[in-house]
Amino acid sequence: MTLTAEQRAEIAEQRSTSSTTLRAVAPGMEAHLYTPHEVLDHGLVRVIDYMGDDSAITQAARVSYGRGTRHVTNDEGLIRYLMRHWHSTPFEMCEVKFHVKLPVFVARQWIRHRTANVNEYSARYSILEREFYIPDPEHLAAQSTVNNQGRGELLEGEEAQRVLDLLREDAMRSYDHYEAMLSQDGQKGLARELARMNLPANIYTQWYWKTDLHNLFHFLRLRADAHAQYEIRAYAEVMCGIVKDWVPIAYGAFRDYRMGGANLSAKGVEVIKRRLRGETVTQDDSGMSAGEWREFEALWG
């Protein structure tokens, strides 16, 4: 990750400044405020602001004016009940704003989560830095033969090196041309909003991304999953660590019921019941398609 001396000084100043407040404060999140967490080769995630904590979730669920006489164990039981039964509104009472620096192709995948407020670095107004995502060799893989949107076996030896060389050469050449088109040395220079079209999808962009906890959990359930693309999963895993420190009870329930749990269709429930009665059930008499049965077996054997 590349941070300038000015950026490091700004972060140090932000972390050294504090103010008193009457609102709920989460000590775990306070430790993360403004601190950049490195992701990939030049990326970062840092918390700019947040609202609420575990108690904000239970307070909203009870619609009370304070903590009352409830114990922590009661709060944990309530949060786990809310998560277990898919109640979303109480989790929407907590919000967080992230500053994220990420490759453009990751951003285009990320932006599909439309339940957030986003403000991205403007390449119409400013000039993008010469920073590109180049994968580590262990993340260079061939196309999967069973999943059209996944990776298969790792590339090795000369083939892996050839791909890495092409990625670096193409990125640098496109940025050289970007600078040449922008240059006003002896020419008018192309407008920034036009020159940017020549840049590759692995160049880094930045944005502020603000969302509530319910929608953040939805993002993390999909993007921190082992089947998610590695590059966006790397960001999601860092964010999981931050959320765990922010709302530990809610995050524990999320890990149990969303990340570690499994959903069953009505047909899947019936198959489990039949198996428990001692029946041998195959795909042919399960009522499931081949794809459904394959996914069912992956979970339940």
Task: Describe the secondary structure blueprint for this structure.
Elements: H1 5-16, H2 27-30, E1 37-39, E2 43-51, H3 54-62, H4 72-84, E3 95-103, H5 104-110, E4 117-120, E5 141-143, E6 151-154, H6 157-182, H7 192-195, E7 204-212, H8 213-223, H9 230-246, H10 248-259, H11 266-276, H12 290-300
Antiparallel strand pairs: 1-2, 2-3, 3-7, 4-7, 5-6
Family: Belongs to the thymidylate synthase ThyX family.
Keywords: FAD, Flavoprotein, Methyltransferase, NADP, Nucleotide biosynthesis, Transferase
Pathway: Pyrimidine metabolism; dTTP biosynthesis
Describe the overall structure.
Pfam families: Thy1. By secondary structure, the chain is α+β, with helices and mostly antiparallel strands. The protein folds into three domains: 5-133 and 202-259, 2-Layer Sandwich (Gyrase A, domain 2), CATH 3.30.1360.170; 138-198, no CATH class; 266-300, no CATH class. The protein is 46% helix and 14% strand. The chain has helices at 5-16, 27-30, 54-62, 72-84, 104-110, 157-182, 192-195, 213-223, 230-246, 248-259, 266-276, 290-300; strands spanning 37-39, 43-51, 95-103, 117-120, 141-143, 151-154, 204-212. Strands 1-2-3-7-4 form a five-stranded antiparallel sheet. The chain has a two-stranded antiparallel ribbon with strand order 5-6. The relative contact order is 0.15. The mean pLDDT is 90.
